Task: inverse folding
């Protein structure tokens, strides 16, 4: 009988070697969400697909045997017991609140709220490479496209905080009042729809600073109108916080929007005061010599200098920038300019032989790009956060991420308010 032949180590390895090939395949996500929520009753939302997924794995492992639901359930129970030991950032043993993580990216919100003893009960992210990073660090695969009704159906009830770093889009509100229905077709509409259905105690949204003036201010006005008037949340005036004031040497301004359900009776909120920790670029730079692949070629440096000179002659400030060790980095972004505006001097290179195809020679001035690990540190990710993708993807992921310390400081204020009620 297969029941007598189950080798839990081989099953464990088989299941946790799954790769994120189809971002919209809900079964692997359901499986990992089930394992992470077996203690809190939320597992009921994921159990059906989790069992189906385990059956598929077992049927491949034992093609000549009949795999029943009972056997699949037994395998699930075996896999649960040491799940938290296998990932760098396990959920707290005794969580104090529950939250969901929308547009999760690589888990900046999750890391911050877990640090405050929160339990993530649902997460979604459409990018397959971000899913890989998320799974490596939290042991959970996010669900896919949150705009799809079938994805929304997996969201459980009775969580406390909804977190979302949603993309900024303009709304078509000409001649209208700019309410809930006018946001259809945008990603904010999907967030608002989930808030309307699930009624979380608090909401925590993050976006680029430009949201304040986006579409001449209409976009933010519509968002606030929906949250306040249509959904009935108390939403204080959004605030722009800069990551550099919360312990990381990066000049990164983002707008934060916080809201509380009317049943909480919360009618006041203060955003966190800056910690103003004295951090500089040198604090996050690699301690040891880095690979020659991060050093710019002489041809590339010459191109950057000419490019900058052309813009300066026109009165523009556009161009590359080398950050001094006692300075503050510019905002890291997913495009190439995020790297070119955050170059550093590092004269420790001893091997100038190129390891990639470059035009010209490796420069002898010590000019290099920051490494993905340095970008991770600029965003407040600890060094045991796993980087499991290519450099190109890692730059994109950290550039798109939230600055963890600023998120955590704000979330702490939210939880303090909820705990007072």
Result:
């Amino acid at each position: 009988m297969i029941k007598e032949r189950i080798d839990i180590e081989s099953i464990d390895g088989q299941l946790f070697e799954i790769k994120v090939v189809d971002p919209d395949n809900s079964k692997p996500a359901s499986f990992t969400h089930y394992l992470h929520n077996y203690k809190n009753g939320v597992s009921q939302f994921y159990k059906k697909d989790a069992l189906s997924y385990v059956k598929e794995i077992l049927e491949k492992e034992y093609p000549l045997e009949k795999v029943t639901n009972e056997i699949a359930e037994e395998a699930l129970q075996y896999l649960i017991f040491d799940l938290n030991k296998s990932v760098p950032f396990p959920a707290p043993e005794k969580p104090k609140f529950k939250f969901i993580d929308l547009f999760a990216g690589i888990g900046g919100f999750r890391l911050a709220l877990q640090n405050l003893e929160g339990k993530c009960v649902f997460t979604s992210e459409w990018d397959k490479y971000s899913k890989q990073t998320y799974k490596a660090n939290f042991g959970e695969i996010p669900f896919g496209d949150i705009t799809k009704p079938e994805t929304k159906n997996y969201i459980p009830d009775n969580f406390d905080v909804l977190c979302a770093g949603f993309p900024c889009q303009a709304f078509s509100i000409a001649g209208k009042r700019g309410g809930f229905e006018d946001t259809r077709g945008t990603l904010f509409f999907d967030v608002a729809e989930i808030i309307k259905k699930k009624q979380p105690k608090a909401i925590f949204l993050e976006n680029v600073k430009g949201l304040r003036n986006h579409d001449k201010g209409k976009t933010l006005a519509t968002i606030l109108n929906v949250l306040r008037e249509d959904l009935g949340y108390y939403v204080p005036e959004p605030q722009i916080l800069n990551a550099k004031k919360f312990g990381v040497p990066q000049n990164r301004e983002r707008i934060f929007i916080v809201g509380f359900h009317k049943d909480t009776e919360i009618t006041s909120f203060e955003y966190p005061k800056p910690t103003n920790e004295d951090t500089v670029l040198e604090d996050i730079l690699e301690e040891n010599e880095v690979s020659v692949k991060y050093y710019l070629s002489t041809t590339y440096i010459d191109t950057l200098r000419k490019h900058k000179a052309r813009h300066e002659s026109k009165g523009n400030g556009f161009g590359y920038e080398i950050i001094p060790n006692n300075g503050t980095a510019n905002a890291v972004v997913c495009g190439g300019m995020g790297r070119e505006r955050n170059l550093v001097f590092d004269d420790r290179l001893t091997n100038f032989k190129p390891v990639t195809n470059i035009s010209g020679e490796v420069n002898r001035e010590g000019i290099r790009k920051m490494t993905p690990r340095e970008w991770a540190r600029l965003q407040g990710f600890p060094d045991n956060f796993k980087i499991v993708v290519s450099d190109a993807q890692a730059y994109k992921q950290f550039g798109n991420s939230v600055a963890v310390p600023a998120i955590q400081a704000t979330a702490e204020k939210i939880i303090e308010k909820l705990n007072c009620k």
